[in-house]
Each structure stands twice: as C-alpha cells, then as structure tokens.
Amino acid sequence: MDKGHHHHHGGDFEARLAACNVAEPVRTYLSQCARFHSSPAPGLLIGAFMVDYALELLKATPDEKLFAVCETPKCLPDAPQVIAHATTGNGRLKVVPIGRFAITMNRVSTEATTEGFRIYVDQEKIKAFPIIDKWFANSPEFVKRTMGDTLQEQILKTGRRFLSFEKVRVPVKIKEHWQPVTCPCCGETVPDYLVVDGKCGACGPMKYYEKI
Ligand SMILES: [Zn+2]
Questions:
Q1: pLDDT of 46 above 50
Q2: Three-class secondary structure assignment of 180-194
C-alpha cells in the first residue's frame, strides 16, 4: 500500500500506464507530467498526447526551442512545460484563457510570423468515446467517484484518436525594448510598457492584495 501522502496515486498510475500498453515516448511524457502536476488529471493526460502529436507534426524533438499557446489555463499548460520545456518563465508558453481545449505549437523563427500546428479536441471524433465525451462536456452523467478510473484508462488507451490538428500561422514573439519607470505610488520600478495611467499595475487595475 501507499503512504497516503499527496502523491498516493503515483503507483496506481504507473501500473495503469503499463496495463494500458502506452507506447514510448508518450508513456514517459505522461509519467513526467503526472509527477509535475501532482496528479494524473484527465486534462493533463490529454495534454501530453497533444504535445506528443504536435512534436510529431513539427518533426521536432522535445529538446528543440519550441513555443506553445494553450487556450485554457486548466491542466493543459503543464504538458508543454514538462515535455517541451516551453514555460511561462522562459517566455515560450502563453496561456490564453479562451476555454477551448487546444494547444498550438511552433518552432523558433526569425520571421514576423511562422507556421505551427494547432491540436484540438474534435467534437465529432470524441462521440466514439462516450466516457471521455461525458467528462469533457461536464455532463452530470459523469460521476468522478465511480468513473474516474475508467476515464483515465480510456484516455490512455484512446490516445490521440479524438484529437485533430490544423496548420496555422502565428505571430513570432519579439523581445520588448523597455525603460524602467518608478511608480509614484509604491516607489517600485516596472517596465514602461506595463505602466497604466502613470502607475504600476498593482497601484492600478491589477491590485491583488490589501496591506495588513
Ligand atoms: Zn505602484
């Protein structure tokens, strides 16, 4: 038995990966993602299959300099961070909170725009996988307590079969040139392009705490 700490699904998950015969390299991706995320959440697992698919389409390896845009902040962003090292910190991951379960990936480029691949959940294809479909649609017919394990198994066995892709053109991120501006309210310094009405964001519309 496990020790009961918050990684307690780790052993179960590894066993399930083996039982479902998930092929490499996606098996390693799934395992790494689950560890990083602290649980093998369904959306994260789908994300790992999406990144694997994107890498294949780009004919890229995870060690190349790749960029990703996630269309939801839920679970998905951890997959490109772990697998392709496209992180918010290194500026190669952008999260756009649209709510679509999709990810676009592209290579580095010196042009103003470049081609990439957008991987998304295909509403036609997903119908062939009722449990995944119910979970994805947030249906009341999906009961996590009794169906959670089956869902996980279905995702591992189904892989990318309910995903589709499209070739897209995306803008290439340019490095911003900036000057420091000292905020007149808090006295801290921010880049000029982030100044709002003469103040830093925290003294303006992006205030997120009260001083105590
Ligand atoms: Zn300020």
A1: yes
A2: EEECCCCCCEEEHHH
